[in-house]
Amino acid sequence: MPKTLGWIRRFHQPNAGAAPTLLIFPHAGSGASAYRNFSKALSANFEVLVLQYPGRQDRAAEPAARELAELAAGALNAFLESEYHRGGPITVFGHSMGAMTGFEFVRQAEASGLAVRLLAASGAVAPHLVARMPAHPTEDEALLDHLGALNGTGAEVLANREIMRMTLPALKADYAAFDAYRCGRDVRVAARMRIMGGADDEHVTAHHLREWSAHSEQEIAVTLFDGGHFYLNDHVAGIAELLADDVHSAR
């Protein structure tokens, strides 16, 4: 059988020798390579590891996960068995579906005894609200229109719907897993939380972001940036600085 590359990608060396570890969970339909710019910016203060979910890019031959908890478990097992697990507390960042998968990862990590210093959840409703959200479209054309409305993909790519169709199998699998996700309002984690979103995001509002407080044993911090659902593409440096400050203050 051909060897797979597994779950973890490290695109950049950390600038500091003993940099804290940060794991990035990508958004629905995307792969690790979509977060190269984030990896570069965050590597100034972190050892950045980007998760590569099965069913896309160099793992396209593998079946996609059917549940977010399954994704989280695969990522956790891979990290615990990797050279990057050195026993110290970690930081987790996820955007949109990646934020929900990151939350599940933190739940499982804390249950296993792995300390999580900070969960940074971006562009996502609070876990207990997922059940109330409308399901994502499942037809190809409707999905492509949905992607265009989110403005998360370059205009030149969106203009070529045939290119976009190549991402649909992974996107459909991710959306199905997200829409099936359920979490009680009383489920909490011990990690600190930094919740972020776009001030003009019509899909995830400030109210949705503040509701994350139900899932933390500590007070949460909420930050709004200019922009819509994919505000983060224009605020890479600002997010990197914010996370570095959060982790430094938590030591």
Automatic annotation (TrEMBL):
Pfam families: Thioesterase. Residues 21-244 form the Thioesterase domain. One of its GO terms (biological process) is lipid biosynthetic process. It catalyses: a fatty acyl-CoA + H2O = a fatty acid + CoA + H(+). Belongs to the thioesterase family. PANTHER family: S-ACYL FATTY ACID SYNTHASE THIOESTERASE, MEDIUM CHAIN, THIOESTERASE. This is Thioesterase TesA.
